[in-house]
Design a protein that fits this description.
Elements: H1 2-9, H2 11-32, H3 39-43, E1 44-48, E2 51-54, H4 55-68, H5 75-99, H6 105-115, H7 131-144, H8 146-174, H9 180-191, E3 193-202, H10 213-222, E4 228-229, E5 232-241, H11 246-260, E6 263-267, E7 272-276, H12 285-292, E8 300-302, H13 312-316, E9 323-329, E10 332-355, H14 369-385, H15 390-397, H16 401-405, E11 409-414, H17 423-430, E12 436-441, E13 444-468, H18 473-492, H19 495-501, E14 507-513, E15 518-519, E16 523-524, H20 526-533, E17 542-547, E18 550-560, E19 563-564, H21 567-590, H22 596-603, E20 608-613, E21 619-620, E22 624-625, H23 627-635, E23 645-646, E24 650-660, H24 669-694, E25 697-699
Antiparallel strand pairs: 1-2, 1-25, 3-20, 3-24, 4-19, 5-14, 5-18, 6-7, 8-13, 9-10, 10-11, 10-13, 12-13, 15-16, 17-18, 21-22, 23-24
């Protein structure tokens, strides 16, 4: 009682303590997720030029996109596709609204006409699209099915938007048509030529020069437009693959060997020992494989050329009832068993026709099964008397559109590629050339003729006992222990030192983007990518991720904010450029003589000649594409010598020998047209990229996917 009394006295105090604890827990969760978030931040997937993209609507479109793709893409792929479509649509709509582009009823009807030209709902007796038919169809939808009518309205809206976009793109394209002057310029770039002599001091003469971080930073700041970057992260990782050990494989092979032979097992029900047949001598292969095989591959005949290359000789020479294996292939240990052998053609040319009956569900067929069989038998008699009649009879009587429209020809059938258990195939390949007969199938009665057979040869019917090669529980536990040990050591110590100690090889991955899904060497790893971008994740952090076939222990090695690339991020691209610039300055200082011959002699190089070079394709034989060098040659007067020019392959000095202008044309319309067409091919993509670059976009997809 004294204890209860004390508890009652402290009740209020305990309630206050619990409430404070719960409140602090809530606060901690709020702060860890960026503070008190508004409803807007939870319901907006992105903002494009001030216009919010609803999270709910976006999620619905992603779900629809995945459903329409029938499971062939991942969620992240669907998100990126829907995002690209949403962004493109929003940016285009802004431009269309700003220009006041509208769609008239005639434009809309013409667009619908193009889209539904062959739809029987909208065509008249002559098979021509009839606008009144369409209006009647829409009116019926509105009256009978409000839901279907709403879908039609959405379709009309979609078509209208397409027309608006088409109109907008037409306006843009009209503004980028090439003029006759631009056509003339393009003609001259391709046809004006220059001959010149030159010497080259290749950059390879100079050993690599030092490039400092300050050099790279200065270059980035000087070329800011080239080095704008989204937020990115770098990682390195160790992949611990969960796979069967040698001991696991040996144990599996031993298990398979036992399944091949007779064995005695204790029957728990009858309390006596039972003798069980092994795979080598069991008669009911299907029941045996259903109980002991990890897969039940289809039993079929194989020619030698169609068997696995490495095992073809051993399997093909087996007689009925003999086995080969176990052998390792495609992640399984396999035992092949030949069930039977036969001589069969590898291909058959066949003709035929199908006589269906109403019970098969064939359209526009009213005959009964008995009537169909009687008709098939009578047609067979006709063909036996004269097989040439089959073509005419098939076009008249066949209920199979393929044979009806092809004069009864089934063509050449390859035994290795057909369904060998089909009654039609069994008849065609089990009988001789010239045979005709009737075969019953679920679709009706086939009247068949074996017109020709080729390459009759031995085939073996093979069934297969397969056991998947998997790690044992002991192996899996050992891998987990190894992974956990490394993870803990890498978190507590130095990741790279622990890698070295364990003799692992860490794989680096640079420039991971926020909405990236795949990691080279690991495949789809969205959770890993998201972790690297979390605010609480810092450079140097280590985490283990579970994979379907093992584990990965990853470390974030760098995090780059949105904006200009960091020195480390741009180094791979910028370092070679700066090295080339520094080497060019060194080489330029080495050139002091006045003529090409003197320069060549002093630098131990030769004077070379380039003839008929144009600006459209500024290729110099032996040096490659050098637009600045060729441009300098065109700019010089004939007989003049250039200053040293920093090209792509080295430092050049050129002397122009002769310039030849292309003959003037009466008209440059064709060239202007070609230039316009080249621009048109790029306009859609470049317009979208330009609108995207100009837009203010807040993209929050990574917070939800």
């Amino acid at each position: 009682m004294a204890v209860l009394s004390k508890i009652r006295e402290k009740t209020v105090f305990l309630i206050v303590i619990i409430a404070l604890a719960l409140f602090s827990f809530v606060l901690m969760d709020l702060f860890s997720n960026g503070g008190f978030s508004s409803d807007k931040s939870q319901n907006v997937i992105a903002t494009i030029n001030g216009e919010d993209v609803s999270r709910e609507q976006f999620a619905m479109e992603v779900e629809n996109y995945q459903r329409n793709s029938r499971g062939n893409i991942t969620t992240t792929q669907a998100v990126n596709q829907v995002w690209d479509a949403t962004l493109r649509s929003t940016l285009m709509k802004e431009q269309i609204d700003a220009l006041g582009i509208e769609v008239g009823s005639d434009q809309l009807n013409n667009a619908i006409k193009e889209q539904f030209a062959g739809n029987p709902n909208f065509t008249n007796e002559a098979g021509i699209f009839d606008i009144n038919k369409m209006r009647e169809y829409v009116a019926n939808l509105k009256a009978s099915s409000p839901q279907a009518y709403q879908q039609w309205v959405m379709l009309e809206d979609n078509v209208a938007e397409q027309v608006k976009v088409g109109t907008y793109l037409t306006l843009v394209k009209a503004g980028i048509d090439a003029t006759l002057a631009e056509g003339k310029s393009a003609y001259q770039l391709a046809n004006n030529t220059v001959n010149f002599k030159y010497v080259t001091l290749p950059y390879s003469q100079i050993e690599d020069v030092e490039v400092t971080k300050e050099d790279i930073k200065a270059y980035i700041n000087k070329h800011k437009e080239e080095f704008k970057s989204e937020a990115a992260t770098d990682i390195q990782y160790i992949y611990f693959e969960e796979k069967a050990s040698l001991e696991d494989e040996n144990a599996l092979k031993a298990e398979i060997q036992k399944l091949l032979k007779k064995r005695v097992v204790y029957n728990q029900v009858s309390k006596i020992n039972d003798t069980l047949q092994g795979f080598a001598n069991v008669t009911d292969n299907e029941a045996f494989l259903a109980e002991f095989s990890d897969t039940q591959p289809a039993v079929r005949y194989f020619f030698k050329k169609d068997l696995p290359t490495e095992q073809a000789e051993q399997i093909f020479t087996l007689e009925a009832g003999q086995t080969y294996g176990p052998y390792k292939a495609n992640g399984f240990y396999n035992v092949a068993k030949v069930v039977r052998t036969k001589q069969v053609a590898d291909s058959v040319k066949a003709n035929g026709m199908l006589i269906s009956y109403k019970e098969t569900g064939a359209a526009e067929v009213s005959r009964t099964k008995e009537e169909a069989k009687k008709l098939a038998d009578s047609l067979l008699i006709e063909i036996k008397g004269n097989s040439a009649k089959l073509a005419t009879l098939a076009t008249t009587f066949s209920d199979d559109p393929t044979t009806k429209n092809a004069n009864g020809e089934l063509g050449w059938l390859q035994y290795a590629q057909v369904n060998q258990s089909s009654p039609v195939i069994e008849y065609l390949f089990d009988n001789a050339q010239g045979e005709v007969g009737v075969v019953e199938t679920p679709a009706g009665f086939y009247v068949l003729e074996i017109a020709e057979t080729k390459n009759i040869q031995r085939a073996v019917e093979v069934t297969m006992l397969q056991k998947k090669i998997e790690p044992s529980e002991e192996t899996s536990n050992a891998l987990f222990t190894e992974t956990t040990k490394f993870e803990i050591a890498a978190k507590q110590g130095n990741y790279n030192e622990e890698v070295k100690k364990a003799n692992y090889e860490a794989k680096p991955v640079k420039g991971i983007k926020n909405m990236q899904e795949n990691i080279p060497g690991l495949g789809s790893q969205r959770a890993l990518v998201q972790w690297t971008f979390e605010e609480k994740t810092k450079a140097g952090d280590v985490k283990r991720f579970d994979l379907p076939n093992g584990y990965v222990v990853a470390q974030v090695t760098a995090k780059y904010p949105k904006g200009l690339m960091q020195v480390e991020e741009a180094s791979a691209k910028v370092t070679p450029i700066i090295q080339r610039e520094k080497k060019a300055e060194i080489l330029k200082k080495k050139i002091t003589a006045g003529t090409l011959t003197e320069i060549a002699k002093n630098q131990n190089v030769s004077v070379q000649t380039a003839n008929a070079v144009n600006m459209k394709n500024p290729m110099i034989a032996g040096a490659g594409s050098e637009p600045e060098v060729v441009g300098a040659a065109f700019a010089l007067a004939e007989g003049s010598l250039s200053k040293p020019i920093a090209g792509k392959a080295g430092v050049f000095v050129v002397e122009t020998i002769a310039k030849k202008e292309a003959p003037a044309l009466p008209s440059y319309k064709q060239m202007a047209t070609q230039e316009s067409q080249a621009r048109m091919m790029q306009v859609n993509r470049e317009l979208y990229e330009a609108l995207k670059a100009k837009a203010e976009i807040s993209d929050n997809r990574a917070s939800f996917y």
